[in-house]
């Protein structure tokens, strides 16, 4: 049985959405004035980012950059569905709208799992309720976009250069450093075995839940790249006993 904490496919904590939106506000692609259909408000002041921990920081940046990667598609969905513009949502909240839309479609428009101990952020909950109330229209708009582009998935809508970069990245194994200040290699092997991972000799032996030692660094483990989201939710990672490089 694998020990999990918060799984990204069930959504993020409110603070992650808020930080991701602030990051996205500063990195989103600016269009020519005659082509601007989605307004993002002013961003003259650098946003204040407050992260609970290293993992929160990492997923906030990942979410922001995923939204950036699909910015054109997300804007098209918002406009095509008539969900945007909305008088009750100011331009300063558009980044949050886009970031949360990316996550909503990534969850196949399913509701987010809310944790009781989670800090409540009113702005995030407002945008979440707004998007979820229009989930059918948003899903239909996404389907129309895929048909328009002849794409089997949203990944196929990305520019060819980006798709090739992602294919190359996905072929590389994940490098994980064993924090020997907190745990021994033997205990890592034991805990991974309990989580149903099998140690193999080399990368060429990789199947799904497998890993191997780095042939050059004895405190580095290699995993299939497809396991990234599952790995980072293991207690070994959330307790910083294993560090993703």
UniProtKB/TrEMBL annotation:
Q: Name one Pfam family in it.
A: NSUN5_fdxn-like
Q: What residues does the NOL1/NOP2/NSUN 5/7 ferredoxin-like domain cover? A: 175-245
Coiled coil regions, renumbered to chain? none
Q: Name one GO biological process term.
A: methylation
GO MF: methyltransferase activity
Q: Which residues form the signal peptide?
A: none
Q: Which UniProt keywords apply?
A: Methyltransferase, Transferase
Gene3D superfamilies according to UniProt = Sun protein, domain 3
| InterPro entries in alphabetical order | NSUN5_7_fdxn-like, NSUN7
What is the protein's given name? NSUN7 methyltransferase
Protein source organism: Chloroceryle aenea
- UniProt lineage: Eukaryota, Metazoa, Chordata, Craniata, Vertebrata
């Amino acid at each position: 049985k694998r020990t999990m904490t918060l799984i990204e496919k069930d959504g993020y904590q409110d603070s992650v959405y808020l930080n991701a939106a602030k990051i996205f506000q500063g990195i989103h692609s600016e269009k020519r004035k005659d082509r601007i259909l989605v307004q993002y408000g002013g961003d003259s002041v650098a946003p204040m980012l407050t992260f609970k921990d290293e993992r929160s920081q990492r997923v906030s940046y990942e979410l922001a950059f995923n939204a950036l990667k699909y910015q054109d598609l997300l804007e098209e969905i918002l406009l095509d569905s008539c969900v945007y513009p909305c008088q009750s949502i100011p331009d300063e909240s558009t980044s949050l709208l886009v970031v949360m839309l990316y996550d909503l479609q990534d969850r196949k428009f399913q509701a987010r799992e809310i944790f009781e101990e989670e800090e409540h952020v009113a702005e995030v909950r407002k945008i979440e309720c707004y998007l979820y109330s229009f989930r059918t229209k948003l899903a239909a708009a996404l389907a129309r976009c895929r048909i328009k582009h002849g794409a089997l998935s949203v990944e196929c809508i990305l520019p060819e250069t980006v798709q090739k970069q992602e294919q190359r990245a996905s072929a590389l194994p994940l490098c994980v450093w064993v924090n020997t200040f907190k745990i021994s290699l033997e205990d890592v092997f034991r805990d991974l075995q309990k989580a149903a991972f099998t140690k193999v000799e080399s990368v060429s032996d990789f199947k799904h839940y497998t890993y191997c030692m780095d042939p050059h660094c004895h405190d580095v483990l290699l995993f299939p790249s497809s396991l990234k989201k599952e790995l980072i939710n293991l207690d070994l990672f959330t307790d910083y006993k294993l560090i993703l490089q």
